[in-house]
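Illustration: Glycosyltransferase.
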Amino acid sequence: MAMANPTVVLVPVWGVGHFVPMIEAGKRLLAAARGGGRPLTLTLLIMPAPTEKRASEIADHIRDVEQDSESSGLGIRFLYLPAAPAPPPAAGAGAGYSGPEEFISLSMQQYAPHVRAAVAGLLCPVAAVVVDLFCTPLLDAAHGLGVPAYVYLICSAAMCALLLRAPALDDEASAAGGGGGGGEDAQFGEAVHVPGLPPVPPSCLPTGLVDRTVPAYEWFVYNGRRYMEAAGLIVNTVAELEPRVLAAIADGQCTRGVRPPPVYTVGPVLADSTPPAAPPAAEQEAEHECVRWLHSQPPRSVVFLCFGSARFFTAEQAGEVAAALDRSGRRFLWVLRGPPARGEKMFTDGDLAAILPAGFLERTKHRGLVWPRWAPQREILAHAAIGGFVTHCGWNSALESLAAGVPMLPWPWAAEQHYNAFVLAAGVGAAVRVEVDRSRDSFVEAAELERAIEALFGDDGEEGRKARETALEIKAACWKAVEEGGSSLASLRRLSDALHQGAVDVLPASQDSEV
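Result:
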């Protein structure tokens, strides 16, 4: 009787921006393993989503993956975990969570027994349990069964370096007098040293590191500390994109001289560009209106503005953007969504008449398009007419831009986006920095946006020329990395070999005295 192929257990969190890239990385791993003659399968453990909207989005993606798996022959199955009670915030019942680091990490403590039981019930060898970047409490479930555990980071190697460095940074800040007692001690007062990068200004740190007095900060440090327990760190980047940071990580410079787990660079893993709610079939078959509009624009002439799934503008901020575009004289495509309905998190269609200054659409109609609904960002970025991307700087969007060879104007807002913006401009060199007022909900003045657009598109600026050239170089590196002989494909094959070597037969739950 043939032995079953080992399975890799993925435990994604609920956000589509995390869920989809993890699955895409898993599919790429299966293809690499099969190409190497040592097949693997995937088992995804699905936790009930915290909202109906997120549950619906994830269910749609699961249906797509199941259909794709059936047609491609990739072995992917889904197991649904029972609901765990919502964890109380550290501040007590009735208080809010201080950040996603706190909510996710506390939730994973609740789900650890369910993950352990599900893995213990598998009837095939288990190669690994792979968890998301703030889900390291689940490492206990894997360790308790003797199963290797890995962390998948949907973000950059620079973010991986910062997480690994976080415990030492915390100790250094405490020794310097920043004991987390409030006031100035609550924040890093000087630039932060992350090996492989220029000094990072405190204003560019992720939200989880901004305030040392809140639980989100403690969980950020906690997760970084526990990365050292993993069998490996799987990162959605390309080796040629962040070579200095990756070398610093491997050399132990982020972990006080102790070599960390091996890092596997598997990018660019690009999320599917399917809209959250699929349009009618006839509309899906037709070319999107934004793409049709781009066909009539000269090459590299259009500035594209799009800000992810969680950012919308007030009328004041939209007015500043409109003024910058008006005065710049540049061609533009601006995706401008409306705020979520009450109790929801997803955008509504933008009410352009209410949010834009009077006369703006008429004045710019011959060189610009403002689109109030979902738009196919990845397809737009790949269009020859796009010359620059004003982006919120989520890592998925940044990778899509780099893979298309489009330089960026980063306009970060939350999470690790300010850090990504710094990395892309000061570290990678594929972006022109935009001055963002973080104290005003990341407000940008019209004059500053106009300056940045001209710096990127103008013929005279050295900064813009370098960003354009670097973006094109990175595009070539991204696509070479996933081809035969490329760095990411080689990394996936090394990972596949390590997973096969680490595969174990897990005792059934009834034989496991600790369950």
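Reading the tokens back as a structure: Residues 273-284, 510-515 have pLDDT under 50 and may be disordered.
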